[in-house]
Amino acid sequence: MAHPTQLGFQDAASPVMEELLHFHDHALMIVFLISTLVLYIIIAMVSTKLTNKFILDSQEIEIVWTILPAVILVMIALPSLRILYLMDEINDPHLTIKAMGHQWYWSYEYTDYEDLAFDAYMVPTQDLAPGQFRLLETDHRMVIPVQSPIRILVSAEDVLHSWAVPSMGVKMDAVPGRLNQTALLASRPGVYYGQCSEICGANHSFMPIVIETVPLLNFMLWSTYPVVSA
Fold first, then answer.
1. Block means of pLDDT (10 residues each) for the chain, length 230 residues?
2. In this structure, are 82 and 186 located in the same domain?
3. With left for phi above 0 and alpha for psi between -120 and 50, is residue 106 left, alpha or beta?
4. Where exactly are the transmembrane stretches of this chain (predicted)?
5. How many angstroms separate the CA atoms of 93 and 150, rounded?
Protein backbone atom coordinates (compact mmCIF):
# COMPACT_ATOMS: atom_id res chain seq x y z
CA MET A 1 0.00 0.00 0.00
CA ALA A 2 1.05 3.58 -0.56
CA HIS A 3 1.77 5.60 2.58
CA PRO A 4 2.28 9.28 3.48
CA THR A 5 5.73 10.84 2.92
CA GLN A 6 6.54 8.06 0.45
CA LEU A 7 9.34 9.11 -1.90
CA GLY A 8 9.32 6.26 -4.42
CA PHE A 9 6.76 4.21 -6.31
CA GLN A 10 4.58 1.57 -4.70
CA ASP A 11 6.05 -1.91 -4.43
CA ALA A 12 5.65 -4.15 -7.45
CA ALA A 13 2.22 -5.79 -7.51
CA SER A 14 2.51 -7.79 -10.73
CA PRO A 15 5.02 -10.29 -12.17
CA VAL A 16 5.87 -7.90 -15.02
CA MET A 17 6.75 -5.06 -12.65
CA GLU A 18 8.92 -7.42 -10.59
CA GLU A 19 10.81 -8.34 -13.76
CA LEU A 20 11.21 -4.65 -14.64
CA LEU A 21 12.66 -3.92 -11.19
CA HIS A 22 15.11 -6.80 -11.51
CA PHE A 23 16.19 -5.54 -14.93
CA HIS A 24 16.60 -2.02 -13.53
CA ASP A 25 18.91 -3.32 -10.80
CA HIS A 26 20.82 -5.42 -13.34
CA ALA A 27 21.37 -2.44 -15.67
CA LEU A 28 22.23 -0.13 -12.77
CA MET A 29 25.02 -2.45 -11.59
CA ILE A 30 26.49 -2.42 -15.11
CA VAL A 31 26.33 1.39 -15.14
CA PHE A 32 28.14 1.53 -11.79
CA LEU A 33 30.88 -0.82 -13.02
CA ILE A 34 31.38 1.16 -16.24
CA SER A 35 31.46 4.47 -14.34
CA THR A 36 34.00 3.09 -11.86
CA LEU A 37 36.24 1.80 -14.66
CA VAL A 38 36.11 5.07 -16.59
CA LEU A 39 36.80 7.11 -13.44
CA TYR A 40 39.80 4.90 -12.63
CA ILE A 41 41.20 5.31 -16.16
CA ILE A 42 40.77 9.09 -16.05
CA ILE A 43 42.48 9.37 -12.66
CA ALA A 44 45.30 7.07 -13.77
CA MET A 45 45.87 9.08 -16.96
CA VAL A 46 45.95 12.52 -15.34
CA SER A 47 48.05 11.46 -12.36
CA THR A 48 50.76 9.36 -14.02
CA LYS A 49 54.16 10.76 -14.87
CA LEU A 50 54.85 8.01 -17.42
CA THR A 51 54.68 9.23 -21.02
CA ASN A 52 55.81 7.85 -24.33
CA LYS A 53 55.51 10.20 -27.30
CA PHE A 54 56.42 7.42 -29.74
CA ILE A 55 53.27 5.32 -29.11
CA LEU A 56 50.79 6.00 -31.92
CA ASP A 57 48.30 3.20 -31.32
CA SER A 58 47.71 0.01 -29.36
CA GLN A 59 46.07 -2.91 -31.13
CA GLU A 60 45.32 -4.72 -27.87
CA ILE A 61 43.52 -1.76 -26.28
CA GLU A 62 41.44 -1.18 -29.40
CA ILE A 63 40.37 -4.83 -29.45
CA VAL A 64 39.39 -4.68 -25.78
CA TRP A 65 37.37 -1.47 -26.04
CA THR A 66 35.55 -2.84 -29.10
CA ILE A 67 34.68 -6.30 -27.78
CA LEU A 68 33.90 -5.34 -24.17
CA PRO A 69 31.12 -2.83 -25.02
CA ALA A 70 29.60 -5.38 -27.41
CA VAL A 71 29.48 -7.98 -24.61
CA ILE A 72 27.93 -5.45 -22.24
CA LEU A 73 25.27 -4.53 -24.79
CA VAL A 74 24.36 -8.21 -25.21
CA MET A 75 24.09 -8.58 -21.42
CA ILE A 76 21.62 -5.68 -21.37
CA ALA A 77 19.73 -6.50 -24.57
CA LEU A 78 18.84 -10.13 -23.86
CA PRO A 79 16.91 -9.59 -20.58
CA SER A 80 15.39 -6.42 -22.04
CA LEU A 81 14.00 -8.29 -25.06
CA ARG A 82 12.72 -11.05 -22.78
CA ILE A 83 10.70 -8.54 -20.74
CA LEU A 84 9.37 -6.87 -23.90
CA TYR A 85 7.97 -10.20 -25.08
CA LEU A 86 6.53 -10.92 -21.61
CA MET A 87 4.74 -7.56 -21.64
CA ASP A 88 3.17 -8.35 -25.02
CA GLU A 89 1.83 -11.73 -23.90
CA ILE A 90 -1.97 -11.78 -23.55
CA ASN A 91 -3.02 -15.41 -23.15
CA ASP A 92 -6.70 -16.20 -22.63
CA PRO A 93 -7.63 -13.20 -20.43
CA HIS A 94 -10.27 -13.85 -17.78
CA LEU A 95 -11.64 -10.32 -18.02
CA THR A 96 -11.57 -7.46 -20.52
CA ILE A 97 -11.93 -3.83 -19.45
CA LYS A 98 -12.07 -0.85 -21.76
CA ALA A 99 -10.49 2.35 -20.41
CA MET A 100 -11.38 5.57 -22.22
CA GLY A 101 -9.54 8.82 -21.60
CA HIS A 102 -11.48 12.09 -21.51
CA GLN A 103 -10.62 15.67 -20.61
CA TRP A 104 -10.16 15.11 -17.71
CA TYR A 105 -11.31 11.79 -16.30
CA TRP A 106 -11.30 8.08 -17.15
CA SER A 107 -14.31 5.94 -17.98
CA TYR A 108 -14.33 2.15 -17.64
CA GLU A 109 -16.47 -0.48 -19.31
CA TYR A 110 -16.41 -4.15 -18.30
CA THR A 111 -17.10 -5.67 -21.69
CA ASP A 112 -17.92 -9.12 -20.27
CA TYR A 113 -20.77 -7.70 -18.17
CA GLU A 114 -23.89 -5.88 -19.21
CA ASP A 115 -24.38 -2.35 -17.91
CA LEU A 116 -21.19 -2.40 -15.86
CA ALA A 117 -19.60 0.91 -16.80
CA PHE A 118 -18.74 4.07 -14.90
CA ASP A 119 -16.70 7.26 -14.95
CA ALA A 120 -13.83 7.86 -12.51
CA TYR A 121 -13.24 11.48 -11.45
CA MET A 122 -10.58 12.70 -9.05
CA VAL A 123 -11.87 13.32 -5.53
CA PRO A 124 -11.42 17.03 -4.68
CA THR A 125 -9.12 17.77 -1.77
CA GLN A 126 -11.94 19.08 0.44
CA ASP A 127 -13.91 15.83 -0.04
CA LEU A 128 -11.10 13.39 0.83
CA ALA A 129 -11.80 10.87 3.58
CA PRO A 130 -9.14 10.06 6.19
CA GLY A 131 -6.50 7.82 4.65
CA GLN A 132 -7.17 8.88 1.07
CA PHE A 133 -4.45 10.51 -1.00
CA ARG A 134 -4.62 13.97 -2.49
CA LEU A 135 -4.63 14.08 -6.31
CA LEU A 136 -4.63 10.27 -6.46
CA GLU A 137 -8.04 9.14 -5.21
CA THR A 138 -11.04 8.71 -7.52
CA ASP A 139 -14.74 8.53 -6.74
CA HIS A 140 -14.96 5.15 -8.53
CA ARG A 141 -12.21 2.56 -8.49
CA MET A 142 -11.49 -0.02 -11.18
CA VAL A 143 -12.00 -3.33 -9.37
CA ILE A 144 -10.29 -6.49 -10.64
CA PRO A 145 -9.69 -9.99 -9.20
CA VAL A 146 -6.23 -11.07 -8.09
CA GLN A 147 -4.27 -13.82 -9.84
CA SER A 148 -6.35 -13.39 -13.01
CA PRO A 149 -4.98 -12.18 -16.36
CA ILE A 150 -6.80 -8.97 -17.30
CA ARG A 151 -6.86 -7.41 -20.77
CA ILE A 152 -7.12 -3.61 -20.83
CA LEU A 153 -8.31 -1.92 -24.01
CA VAL A 154 -7.20 1.71 -24.02
CA SER A 155 -8.45 4.56 -26.18
CA ALA A 156 -9.38 8.24 -25.89
CA GLU A 157 -12.39 10.37 -26.69
CA ASP A 158 -10.71 13.70 -27.43
CA VAL A 159 -6.90 14.09 -27.20
CA LEU A 160 -3.91 11.89 -26.42
CA HIS A 161 -3.85 10.38 -22.92
CA SER A 162 -1.80 7.60 -21.35
CA TRP A 163 -3.12 4.95 -18.95
CA ALA A 164 -0.28 4.21 -16.53
CA VAL A 165 -0.08 2.34 -13.20
CA PRO A 166 3.60 2.01 -12.12
CA SER A 167 3.09 -0.73 -9.52
CA MET A 168 1.46 -2.92 -12.19
CA GLY A 169 4.16 -2.23 -14.77
CA VAL A 170 1.53 -0.88 -17.19
CA LYS A 171 1.71 2.20 -19.40
CA MET A 172 -0.32 2.41 -22.60
CA ASP A 173 -1.08 5.41 -24.80
CA ALA A 174 -4.74 6.31 -25.28
CA VAL A 175 -5.08 7.55 -28.87
CA PRO A 176 -8.38 8.86 -30.30
CA GLY A 177 -9.67 6.53 -33.00
CA ARG A 178 -7.23 3.76 -32.07
CA LEU A 179 -7.73 0.82 -29.72
CA ASN A 180 -4.54 -0.24 -27.93
CA GLN A 181 -4.36 -3.19 -25.58
CA THR A 182 -2.21 -4.23 -22.67
CA ALA A 183 -2.41 -6.87 -19.97
CA LEU A 184 -1.91 -7.03 -16.22
CA LEU A 185 -2.04 -9.64 -13.50
CA ALA A 186 -2.30 -8.56 -9.88
CA SER A 187 -0.24 -10.63 -7.46
CA ARG A 188 -2.04 -9.64 -4.26
CA PRO A 189 -5.02 -7.64 -2.97
CA GLY A 190 -4.50 -3.92 -2.53
CA VAL A 191 -5.13 -0.45 -3.91
CA TYR A 192 -2.77 0.81 -6.59
CA TYR A 193 -2.50 4.31 -8.01
CA GLY A 194 -1.56 5.76 -11.37
CA GLN A 195 -2.02 8.92 -13.40
CA CYS A 196 -2.38 10.05 -16.97
CA SER A 197 1.18 10.13 -18.34
CA GLU A 198 0.58 12.18 -21.47
CA ILE A 199 0.27 15.95 -21.29
CA CYS A 200 -3.36 16.29 -22.33
CA GLY A 201 -4.35 19.81 -21.32
CA ALA A 202 -4.96 22.15 -18.42
CA ASN A 203 -6.16 19.48 -15.98
CA HIS A 204 -3.72 16.79 -17.07
CA SER A 205 -2.51 16.26 -13.49
CA PHE A 206 -6.05 15.81 -12.17
CA MET A 207 -7.14 12.55 -13.81
CA PRO A 208 -5.74 9.76 -11.60
CA ILE A 209 -6.22 6.01 -11.95
CA VAL A 210 -7.06 3.74 -9.02
CA ILE A 211 -7.08 -0.06 -9.25
CA GLU A 212 -8.50 -2.08 -6.38
CA THR A 213 -7.54 -5.75 -6.50
CA VAL A 214 -9.72 -8.15 -4.52
CA PRO A 215 -10.13 -11.93 -4.18
CA LEU A 216 -12.20 -13.56 -6.91
CA LEU A 217 -15.21 -14.16 -4.67
CA ASN A 218 -15.32 -10.52 -3.66
CA PHE A 219 -15.07 -9.48 -7.30
CA MET A 220 -17.97 -11.77 -8.24
CA LEU A 221 -20.09 -10.22 -5.50
CA TRP A 222 -19.08 -6.71 -6.61
CA SER A 223 -19.86 -7.43 -10.27
CA THR A 224 -23.27 -8.85 -9.29
CA TYR A 225 -24.12 -5.82 -7.16
CA PRO A 226 -21.78 -3.18 -8.60
CA VAL A 227 -21.63 -0.40 -6.06
CA VAL A 228 -19.12 1.64 -8.04
CA SER A 229 -17.73 3.81 -5.28
CA ALA A 230 -14.33 4.21 -3.68
1. 72 90 93 95 85 75 90 94 86 91 94 89 92 90 93 94 93 94 92 93 93 93 68
2. no
3. beta
4. 27-51, 63-85
5. 5
